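User: Um, what's this?
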Amino acid sequence: MNRKLPGLMLVISTLSGAIAAQQGVGNSYSFWNELPLGLAAALIYSFLGIIVLMIGFKIFDWITPFSLNREIEEKNNTAAGLIVAGIMIALGLIVAAAIL
């Protein structure tokens, strides 16, 4: 099983189980048995995604010639806030693509 596609594999397994149940074939798959594993995987991926976003922000803050935190908090710089929002969206898309 490919580790990058657990959600897709769960969907495929669910669909194949539904098809087998309609055809009268014995089905050992149970949604309720797999639910804790799916929830645990979702929590782990969420935690890892947040960590990657934080690290990405810190790296971007480190390479800029000014402190993004100071610009946003003390100087109320809207442009710096938009930069941070763009960084978070871009990194979020990258993390989501890597997980799926």
In short: The chain has a mean pLDDT of 79.
